[in-house]
Specification:
The complex is a heterodimer of chains A (382) and B (108). Chain A has 382 residues and is an alpha/beta fold. Chain A has 13 helices and 12 strands. In chain A, helix 9 packs across helix 10. The radius of gyration of chain A is 19 Å and the shape is globular. Helices cover 0% and strands 45% of the residues of chain B. By secondary structure, chain B is mostly beta strands. The relative contact order of chain B is 0.27. Classes of the chains: A alpha/beta (382), B mainly beta (108). The interface between A and B is medium-sized, with 32 and 34 residues.
Chain lengths: 382, 108
């Protein structure tokens, strides 16, 4: 029997707007913290997987600051699932017996785009994409999922808003969150419309930040055990008998994850779920199996997913409050789950958390139901 | 800009339709595909309105037509668009600055 793969170290920068920092300094800060946390030496690292959507050579440019060369360094891009895909590849390499200790890092900075006044570029689909030419934006995709959910299942604007209210309430407890302010349902619904019915406070911010993890299957490794890690790409799709964008790929990845490690989603103490938009969190409840299709609005209204509830979702504040550095988000979710399972999440600790799950969803390519979805199941270590 | 309705490729052997056109039928692998015009009506699967900073806005709808899902810019501002309603698809009515009808999918 092979040794379990464990998260032995985790590092996370503050999330926010850092005009005077570059992406390498963010990546290096998280990496050094994760290595120090692991108690291992930099020379123990056999390979490094960096999530980087748009920064060429981020891995090499970061590792040179740590004095680490020679080892395999892999830079990975998969939209919002960029650094969770890096994590997926890293654990595969351990599972294959190729390495014993690997580094996973994700880092993102919007400072260059802010300086060039090009922030808008990141919310549009690629300009070569025909859907973009027809007027579709990324918030527009999620807005149409929301319109459909409201018409089909009776989900209300207030239920959508509650996702943002919950995650901002959680974010108040997280000193590293980008936005630490309480919002009421009225605040959320009266903010300006981005794509009807989604208002500003139902859309995540663009964030600078970095996250890093050290994974190891050495016999002396201690920390949360990677029980399952699944990656799926959306079906080539669009046929009329299919559901809303992105729901199927999350459901397929989740079903595979639950089967692999023999757990029920209802047994998961703490989730980090891709709440780039409020409706994204609601449809994820259904795809993950936390409730029946159509019942997600009731789940958040009944506070099942709030701190103190049965299945806590986004105790860290999620993308809506903690922030969304695209390349770092997947790794950041995994750092948050690691904190929870080690009992080190401070004021937003889920009491006695043993089982945690991170779900990242990256989109969107025209004609495909989601670019990439990763689901990772972690269990508290011995 | 005038854009015609998209044509789908129908497989002569199995009857499946696909769009965009592929070399092989994705259902049965046949290469015998013929072009076919989509109907000019469809059912709205979902829709949204996206406001702009200058006070204007644009509307788009996802429309199911003959098993294909179409992304349709809604040019007529007075048209009522709701989930499940039938709409007429006229690609010539595309609002200025946006490009016609975009479609994806396969159906049998």
């Amino acid at each position: 029997m092979t040794s379990p793969i464990r998260v032995v170290g985790a590092g996370l920068t503050s999330f926010g707007r850092f005009d005077d920092r570059d992406v390498v300094s963010l990546a290096a800060e998280a990496t050094i913290e994760a290595l120090q946390d692991s108690g291992l030496q930099p020379s123990d690292v056999d390979a490094a997987y960096f999530g980087s959507a748009g920064d060429f050579g981020l891995g090499q440019r970061t590792m040179v600051h740590l004095g680490l060369g020679g080892l395999p360094i892999i830079n990975v891009e998969n939209a919002c699932a960029t650094s969770s895909t890096a994590f997926y590849l890293a654990q595969l390499a351990l599972r294959a017996g190729e390495h014993q200790t690997v580094l996973v890092v994700g880092a993102h900075s919007y400072a260059p785009q802010r300086r060039q006044n090009r922030l808008g570029d990141t919310t549009a689909l690629a300009q070569v994409d025909r859907d973009f030419a027809a007027g579709l934006t990324l918030p527009g995709i999620y807005a149409m999922v929301a319109q459909r959910h409201m018409a089909e299942h009776g989900t209300t604007p207030e239920q959508l808003a509650l996702v943002s209210v919950k995650n901002h309430e959680h974010g108040l407890l997280n000193p590293k969150a980008q936005y630490r302010s309480a919002l009421s349902v009225e605040d959320v619904l009266s903010s300006r419309v981005i794509a009807d019915p989604l208002t500003l406070y139902q859309c995540c911010p663009r964030t600078d930040g970095a996250a890093a993890l050290v994974l190891s299957n050495r016999p002396d490794a201690r920390g949360p055990d990677v029980r399952a890690c699944v990656l799926r790409t959306g079906a080539v799709a669009g046929a009329a008998d299919e559901g809303s964008w992105g729901a199927d790929i999350v459901a397929a990845a989740a079903a595979e994850a639950w089967e692999r490690c023999g757990v029920s989603p209802l047994d998961v103490d703490v989730f980090e779920v891709h709440d780039a938009f409020t409706i994204g969190e609601l449809v994820s409840y259904e795809s993950l199996g936390l409730c029946k299709p159509g019942d997600a609005g009731g789940l958040v209204a009944d506070r099942v997913t709030w701190l103190g509830g049965r299945n806590v979702v986004n105790a860290s504040g999620g993308l809506l409050s903690r922030g969304h550095p695209v390349s770092a988000t997947g790794a950041a979710m995994l750092v948050e789950i690691t904190k929870q399972l080690r009992g080190r999440a401070g004021d937003y600790q889920v009491a006695g958390a043993r089982l945690g799950v991170a779900e990242t969803m990256g989109g969107g390519t025209a004609g495909m139901s989601g670019n990439a979805c990763t689901i990772t199941v972690l269990m508290a270590g011995q | 800009m005038t854009v015609g309705l998209p044509t789908v490729a129908r497989c002569v052997l199995c009857g499946g339709v696909t769009l965009p056109r592929k070399v092989f039928c994705p259902t049965c692998g046949s290469t015998e595909l013929v072009d076919e015009q989509l109907p000019a009506t469809g059912e709205v699967f979902s829709h949204t309105t996206i406001p702009h900073p200058d006070g204007t806005h644009h509307r788009i709808a996802l429309v199911n037509s003959a098993g294909i899902r179409l992304l349709v810019p809604v040019g007529d501002d007075s048209a009522e668009v709701t989930v499940g309603c039938l709409i007429h698809i006229d690609a010539r009515a595309t609002p200025p600055g946006y490009q016609g009808v975009v479609a994806h999918g396969e159906a049998r």
